[in-house]
Design brief:
The chain is α/β, with parallel strands linked by helices and 673 residues long. The chain is 59% helix and 15% strand. Among the domains are: 231 residues, Orthogonal Bundle (Arp2/3 complex 21 kDa subunit ARPC3); 154 residues, 2-Layer Sandwich (Alpha-Beta Plaits). The protein contains 27 helices and 18 strands.
Length: 673
């Protein structure tokens, strides 16, 4: 049955009950034998309906009122019809004063009336109804009857609420019931349980009513505390969104539901891009507001059955039930991304952030919630690596990293200590005279079980931790030692080392470089340090200081991957660098794509005009080589010349080629092509 069909069925049943009650019973004697107690309970019931305890489940979720105790007391003390009408009317009045939608108010009123009706039915079936009302001394039998009635009210109310929740969230009824019954028992159940005490007191003397107020306040308060504690345990305090624990629960139930019905589900993980910059530059309170605004935006944009959670920091998770094909989920994630990228208006200005989204689908990418989340994480990380966007998990090489970023990071620490990180060297050759002038040191991780892991899969990760410094340190020392050895062998090669953003922000870094050079006794001119535009832009002032000191030291500085970053030409002019390395995304396709050829030509001209040397990376064929030679590029690097290789192999090939024709191996490669 659909949600609305169910809602209107309950409303119709409630209305039917109300009509039946009004038509068949004599309403003149509404108060029953205890008018004072009746009116006291009726008034308290109404007051409490007007001030329910809010229980923030989903954005406008459930709530608890202490009114059940009085409603049940009314049922035990006065004619059933009156109790049912009172409860229904109080609920309706309460909901309408709180401006809830009419359908919801009607549904709630019907639901409580029907539940109370079930209690009344239990009392009528058991032969104690009249004795209770007539106020005879309570016996074990009466008490048992009251307990049965309370249980009937509790169960029918729980089932009616659960059904609507399950239909709204599209979750299985049974798991919803299991999830909510505990909370209901600690609130409604407790309130129902004290109703007989109210009855006993009221039958004896109304003087004790103030004590009832204290008791019901205590119960009301403990219900409130229980609910807020439960809410806190399962929600993020800043955004009010479900936390990781609740998300995992929901994902587990969504998957078991999808399994049973043969449907698909998706887990999307999102990490904000550039959020750290907002925190650092604008302050944490602005960062917090951004998270709140985005959390609200996301949760308002998904269906009622979907879940948006904050997993911590700037990471959010979205669970989509009952989804279509890959393309549909990709499109959904894309619209979430657009939503995230809209400016957040905070205080008097607006802040913009981006997001990297990773998608994993059930059953395609995993059948357990944990596997799906991990795979979404891998996909999200791939998106992050590519500078943002939406990526769906693919069962490709990154599979190996599926066992989680965190465990990989902790293993990386061990890997550094155990010398599992190795360096390959890729030759760089001058175009004019085909001479190998140097090599770029490229890091790989020889993982004992996962095999060879490329740098892209762990370096960006490490840059978010304190491991970036030790890694550069390690590479620098190893590369310099290697370079010194080449020189001892008579090979005059320079060595290039890639830097991380953290190095450029570390004012002690130039000193560390000087020391490392001194240790191996190399002239600084043989060391080339590669930076990217973006690492400089993260903190231009500090980077500038560090770069100037490095240049003064006599080290060669190169901008790597040029053309893919965000620096302006003005920045380029001011940067103390000697070399521009044109990114392989332009060089690799320049032979077939005139647009890319134009970009390469423009970069070369720009570099020449600024008096910088040029390196083209990603040269994969003779055609590209020739084009670059015509354009006056200085140095090339790429698979056409040589792949990154072990230091020993590089020397071997160099020696062989020099013996062969006086040219380096590059020459033979060129003629062969
Ligand atoms: P990069 O510095 O731009 O390095 C060049 C990358 O292009 C290398 O990938 C290299 O194998 C690849 N490459 C070279 N020639 C060709 C070609 O002709 N065609 C194609 N398709 N690719 C080519 P690798 O070794 O996977 O390194 C990727 C990136 O990882 C590097 O890009 C660099 O940014 C980073 N990296 C590598 N080693 C280190 C390191 O020790 N420290 C830091 N901070 N980053 C490193
Ligand atoms: Mg490089
Ligand atoms: Mg590069």
């Amino acid at each position: 049955m659909g949600l609305w069909a169910y809602v209107w069925t309950v409303i119709a049943a409630g209305a039917g009950l109300a009509a039946w009650v009004v038509l068949t019973e004599d309403l003149r004697s509404i108060a029953g034998p205890y008018p004072a107690a009746f009116w006291t309970f009726a008034v308290l019931l109404t007051l409490l309906e007007l001030r329910p305890v809010k229980w923030l489940r989903r954005q406008d979720g459930g709530e608890v009122t202490a009114s059940w105790a009085y409603a049940c007391a009314l049922l035990l003390l006065s004619p059933s019809n009156v109790a049912i009408l009172c409860m229904g009317a109080a609920s309706l009045l309460g909901d309408l004063t709180q401006r809830k939608p009419l359908s919801r108010a009607l549904f709630n009123a019907s639901q409580v009336s029907l539940s109370l009706g079930c209690g009344a039915l239990a009392l009528t079936v058991l032969p104690y109804r009249e004795t209770l009302i007539s106020g005879e001394i309570l016996t074990v039998g009466y008490v048992a009857a009251m307990i049965v009635a309370g249980a009937a009210i509790f169960l029918s109310n729980s089932v009616l609420t659960c059904l609507v929740l399950a239909l709204y969230e599209q979750t299985p009824v049974w798991s919803t019931l299991r999830r909510t019954i505990g909370v209901n028992a600690s609130t409604d159940g407790m309130l129902l349980a004290i109703a007989p005490i109210f009855v006993a007191i009221a039958q004896r003397s109304l003087v004790l009513v103030p004590l009832l107020l204290v008791t019901s306040y205590a119960v009301y308060n403990s219900a409130r505390l229980a609910l807020s504690r439960q809410h806190e345990a399962l929600h993020d305090a800043l955004t009010g969104l479900p936390n990781r624990r609740l998300f995992d629960d929901q994902a587990a139930s969504a998957l078991s539901d999808a399994r049973r019905r043969g449907r698909r589900a998706a887990v999307i993980l999102m990490d904000l891009d550039g959020f750290k910059g907002i925190n650092d530059r604008l302050g944490h309170h602005i960062g917090d507001r951004v998270l709140q605004v985005l959390g609200k935006r996301l949760s308002e944009s998904v269906r009622g059955s979907d879940v948006v959670a904050r997993l911590g920091g700037d990471e959010f998770a979205i669970l989509l039930r009952n989804v279509g094909d890959d393309a549909a989920v990709h499109a959904a994630a894309n619209s979430l991304r657009q939503l995230v990228e809209q400016p957040c208006h905070i205080e008097s200005f607006s802040v913009t952030v981006g997001g990297s989204f990773g998608i994993a689908l059930y059953p395609d990418h995993g059948s357990e919630p944990q596997a799906l989340t991990q795979h979404a994480d891998v996909a999200m990380y791939t998106a992050k690596h590519a500078g943002g966007g939406v990526v769906t998990y693919r069962n490709h090489t990154r599979d190996r990293l599926g066992h989680g970023r965190l465990s990989l990071l902790s293993e990386l620490r061990r890997g550094i200590d155990h010398h599992e990180l190795i360096l390959n060297y890729q030759p760089k050759v001058t175009l004019a005279d085909r001479k190998v002038v140097g090599a770029e040191a490229l890091l790989r991780w020889e993982h004992p079980t996962l095999g060879l892991i490329p740098p892209g899969d762990f370096i960006q990760l490490a840059e978010h931790t304190d491991l970036a410094g030790p890694i550069t340190d390690y590479v620098l020392h190893k590369a310099l030692a290697q370079c010194a050895q080449w020189h001892r062998q008579g090979l005059e090669l320079s060595v290039a080392v890639n830097l991380s953003a953290g190095n450029l922000h570390d004012l002690r870094f130039p000193k560390a470089v000087a020391q490392a050079l001194e240790e191996v006794g190399l002239d600084p001119a043989w060391l080339e340090l590669e930076i990217t535009e973006n690492t400089v832009m993260a903190d231009p002032t500090r980077s500038m200081t560090v770069l100037s000191e490095l240049r003064d030291l006599g080290v060669t500085l190169a901008i790597d991957d040029f053309g893919t970053g965000y620096s302006s030409l003005a920045n380029l002019r001011d940067l103390p660098v000697h070399v521009i390395k044109i990114d392989r995304s332009f060089v690799g396709t320049m032979a077939t794509n005139t647009g890319d050829a134009t970009i390469v030509r423009s970069i070369l001209e720009l570099a020449h005009n600024l008096g910088m040397r040029t390196v083209a990376e990603g040269v994969e064929n003779a055609e590209t080589w020739r084009m670059l030679a015509d354009l006056g590029c200085h140095v090339v690097q790429g698979y056409f010349i040589g792949r990154p290789m072990a230091a020993g192999d590089l020397v071997e090939r160099l020696t062989v080629m020099q013996q062969a024709d006086g040219f380096e191996f590059v020459a033979r490669r060129t003629t062969a092509a």
